[in-house]
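Deviation from plan, reported transparently: 2-acetamido-2-deoxy-beta-D-glucopyranose complex.
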Amino acid sequence: MTKDKGIILRNFVFLVAFTSEVITLSSDKNEFAIDMSKVGLTHVPKDLPLKTEVLDISQNYIAELSLSEFRYLPRLKILRLSHNRLRYLDFSIFNLNRNLEYLDLSNNQLKRITCHSITSLKYLDLSFNDFDVSPICKEFGNLTQLIFLGLSVAKLQLDLLPIAHLHLECILLELEHYYVKEDARESFQVLNTKALHLVFHPNSLFSVKANLSVNALECLQLTNIKLNDVNCQVFMEFLSEFTRGPSLLNLTFNQIETTWKCLVQVFQFLWSKPIEYLNIYNLTIVESIGEERFIYPRTTLKALNIEHITNRVFIFSQKALYTVFSEMNIKMLTISDTPFIHMLCPQTLSTFMFLNFTRNVFTDSVFQNCSTLVKLETLILQKNGLKGLLKVGLMTKDMSSLKILDVSGNSLEYERREGNCTWAWSIVVLNLSSNLLTDSVFRCLPLRVKVLDLHNNRIRSIPKAVNSLEVLEELNVAFNSLTNLPGCGAFSGLSVLTIDYNAISNPSADFFQNCPMIRSLKAGNNPFQCTCELREFIHSVGQASRAVVEDWPASYKCDYPESSKGTPLQDFRVSQLSCNPSLLMATVVGTVLVWAIATAILCVYFDVPWYLRMVCQWTQTRRRARNLHVQELRRALQFHAFISYSGHDSAWVKTELLPNLEKEDIRVCLHERNFVPGKSIMGNIINFIEKSYKSIFVLSPHFVQSEWCHYELYFAHHNLFHEGSDNLILILLEPIPQHSIPGNYYKLRTLMAQRTYLEWPKEKAKQGLFWANIKAAFNVQLMLMTENNAEASF
Ligand SMILES: *[C@@H]1O[C@H](CO)[C@@H](O)[C@H](O)[C@H]1NC(C)=O
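Because the crystal trials were delayed, the predicted structure below was used instead.
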């Protein structure tokens, strides 16, 4: 029952589409809709929102409706109540629902209704119920907006008078409980409707006999027709009642079960009637298929459309079958969803312009060497068993009018070594999608093709050297394995390229220059690598007018590197610097240079190394002073410092060194002041060096020349008491060239080489640090003996 209903609804949609006026009953997106179908309801829910406009409570267990339930839904527009258990309905419960347009009460158990006119109703379905008497009451006459009425009736003889003045689009009469006495003829008047749909009992042989009077019926649909060789005549008589006038143009059979013989008779019968479109959905052929005598007369029929044939035949004449279809003198034939071959090349010149054999079992030998399909413009062989592209090309060779060829969804392959392909010169649209084609397909294409669909194949790249398809306008290569955008060299007129869902990571940026005619590029959902190279592409997208790039920016996202995965390309940023190696190099080199120059300037102008050395020495000295052994300090010391210098430098010693030392209370020993007369010079030197905590040497070129000074240095360094300890302070008053130091003064050379001296800075500003360094060396509280004590200790 549900299945039937589905078909009926589908066909209703078809009928409505057929009639010129479009009925807008389906709920649009902005309406407030509640779907409570299939939830086991036994009553209409109480707490529905006031604003409900669409309410679906179909397929539940609701047996009763009460007055209060819909009262509070003033905006209710669409109410679906089908497949429930309603037995009785009082239409006055809807009298406050002034917007109610669509009311589906089909597939209930309604026996009785109490009428009340709901003038807003456009769609009322009362079919598949249990009415004993016709449910048409006089109030229906007020439903002036009504366009669809579905009824469940037990006989055709209806009192349609109350609704005779309405202008309906479609009436559905469900006749499952139809009964008439044997051979009784009913009369039935179809009033003012464009479409009529009759549903018979699914399992009874067709037996309706009626005198019909139809008025301007355009569209007839019959569901559940069971025919054999005996009642075939009854059925044709029934049909002839409808086809007496010229108005019926569209005839549809759903669920028809028939013998082959009867089917051919029905075709023969209908061929001479003024019908233009014949549709058959779910055709079952029973008993046998044998040869039938038939000739197709001249016909107004334009299109025969058969979807889904089931063959329950055991004796089968293939030739009989093929001829019935191939010799039809109509323009359009569709036979889809049929698991056997039903047609071959017509014997004589054929009238077919359109053939659609979707989802059949054709192989590529069909229509080979067929020279009778010269009017054929469209051939659809979608989802069949075609394998060789070369043979498909060959098949079209003599179809000199063929414009559109759809062989999508097969298993087509082409290898180059198979040879060159031949195609009908006239082909402009070629659909090769969902096959097994590889790169080589580009060597086997009709040269005048304008629209080429190759999506969902196995193409990895588009070869550079292909036959040029100069008039190609649209190319679809989505869902392949392409790694780059193609150049348009071979497709100079390409204006629409669809290349999404491939393996493109770095699309070339010159695409837009390369393909000047491009109007639309769809390249989203590729695994873009968001690195420097991609910037140029993003830039070129930015420059191309946005309308050209389809789905931008939503479908264009980074796939790599991991850190930017999912980032829209539009938002991908990488600095100018990191993408330009020469710029990066220049920047690094530049920075280094600036640093070097700055450092050099600092060194030259501010003598930074000198300061560093001084600070370093100062810290070392302080540390050493702190670590001095107490024992050492107990030594009998008389002076803080013994100063050794050349006579030439005495002026500096007297004016600079001495005042600065003595200012800090440093007791200084000078040879001309403190040497004991009469004692040997050597003795004096040794004596005073020993009695001094440190020895200061003022180094200069003069110092080097002085032999005495050298002795002093020697003794100071080998001081018996504090050998190894750091008792020397070297002051470099003036630079001493290495070569001017005599060869045997190796001690001085070593000391100079170790650079453990303090340089005397000529600049006043630096002298503070110099003195601080000297002072640090004496930063020790020393107990010095008085001269007398010293004397005593001697
Ligand atoms: C090709 O056929 C497929 C279905 O197999 C369809 O989706 C597609 O739109 C067709 N392409 C063209 C260009 O008609």
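Residues 171 and 196 are 5 Å apart (CA to CA). We consider this an acceptable substitute for the interim report.
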